[in-house]
Design brief:
Elements (H helix, E strand, L loop, with lengths): L3 H28 L2 H25 L6 H26 L5 H27 L6 H18 L6 H8 L2 H9 L12 E2 L2 H11 L8 E9 L14 H8 L3 E6 L15 H10 L3 H5 L15 H7 L6 E5 L3 H5 L1 H9 L4 E5 L8 H13 L7 E6 L1 H9 L6 H22 L7 E8 L14 H4 E6 L3
Parallel strand pairs: 1-3, 2-6, 2-7, 4-5, 4-6
Antiparallel strand pairs: 3-8, 7-8
Helix pairs in contact: 1-2, 1-4, 1-5, 2-3, 2-4, 3-4, 4-5, 9-17, 15-17, 16-17
The structure holds zinc ion.
């Protein structure tokens, strides 16, 4: 065969690149480092091209490049197309290591089949080096997955963030009044607010007030991070209680009736209903408009409060509550929809904090002030929803810090002594790996902390 040298060189180069990819690609995919992911995808395509080129050269085609390009295009379409499919459809976008395994296994089969075909063309003279490189991927892949991120994040997600370990951690948290089995529904937030507003004013008090601190994507077991829990502890010290609660429409392990996601969670709290038989928001792939007005509007119409305000930074809320926002405008309702743009980097949270603080410092502050902070959700989606992740811990610390400052702002009000404040801290859903929406215990559990008995 006249091109033996070239075939050997192409095969070996492709196989060395394949080995490098086998070690790098899983880390890049699991951590979702987008620019590097693009580089990896390009290198995988180059490997495919080199192998096709080697094959057609071995077949002594006059112009091997043209069919090699066709082969590469087919490879990219089929194999690179399978990855997002596996990731999103089979693993629900929460187990990237699963799709990495599937994708790498498929690549491995592809590489081995190509080397076998090339070997067939070159006869017994085909060397063992490329084959060895490809086989070494079998060792490189698990090493890559297990050492992903300095804090062994992937290892943690796979080995440590299990239902058993979650339950064990929950058992170590001594602030909860109830257990996972007796978790209260998320609708309790609505009930607590309405019960407070309807209850007679205590002696010496002249006005009902409510502040809710919403921590988007904060898991119930985050409360194990005692060193960042001062806001919660402040409510408990005032005679409050903490409860484990569930979102998703039904307690674990019953089937979900709505996704464990943002729109569904908060809308459930605002209306006191679940999506299927109430507000109508059940899916998160498309942003749904709530069928019902929340307590921002209804509590005013019922004569329980004069004014309300909602401080938030996720633009999806503008869509979900667009009917209510339009209704409030048309009917001159005293509801302030205070949106702070800047979702990138969770940056909207500063705006949410400043707006909430400004409201609380007004002489006549809103009777019902609801705030949502995106720290935990943003850091969770970016790095992982998990106490042992330093970034998620930082998100919890920041949530706590804003909580402490807003609770202090309530207590610093000149009229605080004559106001009857209900203060709640709660979250819309938990999280698992880098997502939520599914039915794991970690996603379904959230919490409600109140300053009242
Ligand atoms: Zn959320």
């Amino acid at each position: 065969m006249k091109n033996e040298k070239k075939v050997r060189a192409l095969s070996l180069t492709a196989s060395v690149l394949a080995l490098a990819m086998g070690c790098v690609y899983p880390t890049v995919f699991i951590k979702w480092i987008v620019p590097l992911y693009a580089v990896c995808a390009a290198v995988l395509a180059v490997i495919a091209f080199l192998l096709f080129d080697a094959l057609f050269t071995a077949k002594e085609k006059d112009k091997p490049v043209k069919p090699a390009v066709v082969g590469t295009v087919v490879y990219v379409a089929v194999l690179m197309g399978i990855t997002p499919l596996v990731n999103n459809v089979i693993f629900g976008a929460v187990a990237p290591w699963g799709s990495v395994l599937v994708n790498t296994a498929l690549n491995l089969i592809f590489w081995l089949v190509m080397l076998r075909l090339i070997r067939k063309q070159t006869g017994e003279r085909f060397v063992w080096k490329p084959l060895l490189c490809v086989l070494l991927v079998v060792i490189g892949l698990p090493v890559s997955i297990l050492t992903t991120a300095p804090n062994m994040k992937a290892t943690g997600f796979i080995v440590l963030d299990t239902v058993e370990n979650y339950k064990e951690r929950m058992d170590t948290i001594d602030i909860y009044e109830n257990t996972l089995e007796t978790a209260v529904p998320q609708t309790q937030v609505y009930d607590m607010v309405m019960d407070h507003l309807k209850a007679p004013l205590p002696e010496g008090k002249t006005e009902k007030k409510v502040l809710v601190l919403g921590w988007d994507g904060c898991r119930a077991d985050a409360m194990a991070m005692k060193e960042h829990r001062q806001a919660v502890d402040a409510l408990l010290a005032d005679g409050g209680k903490a409860y484990i609660a569930y979102c998703g429409g039904a307690n674990y392990p019953a089937a979900l009736t709505q996704e464990t996601a943002t729109m569904e969670g908060w809308t459930t709290m605002f209306t006191g209903t679940w999506g299927v038989d109430g507000h109508g928001v059940t899916g998160f792939d498309d942003v749904r408009v709530s069928k019902m007005n929340g307590f921002f509007t209804t509590a005013i119409e019922d004569g329980l409060i004069d004014s309300s305000a909602f401080c938030f930074s996720w633009s999806g809320h503008l869509k979900t509550y667009e009917d209510e926002i339009a209704y409030d405008e048309a009917n001159n309702m005293n509801v302030a929809w205070l949106f702070s743009d800047g979702e990138e980097g969770g940056g909207g949270d500063e705006g949410t904090f400043e707006k909430a603080l400004a409201e609380l410092q007004k002489d006549d502050c809103p009777d019902l002030l609801f705030t949502i902070f995106e720290y935990c959700d943003y850091y969770g989606h970016t790095y992982g929803f998990w106490n042992d992740d330093p970034e998620y811990e930082e998100a919890f610390r920041l949530s706590n810090l804003t909580g402490v400052n807003l609770i202090d702002a309530v207590k610093a009000r000149p009229t605080y002594d004559t106001e009857d404040w209900l203060i709640l801290i709660s979250s819309d859903h938990g999280g698992y790996v880098r997502g939520h929406g599914g039915d794991t215990l970690m996603e379904r559990m959230m919490f409600i902390v109140t300053n009242k008995d």
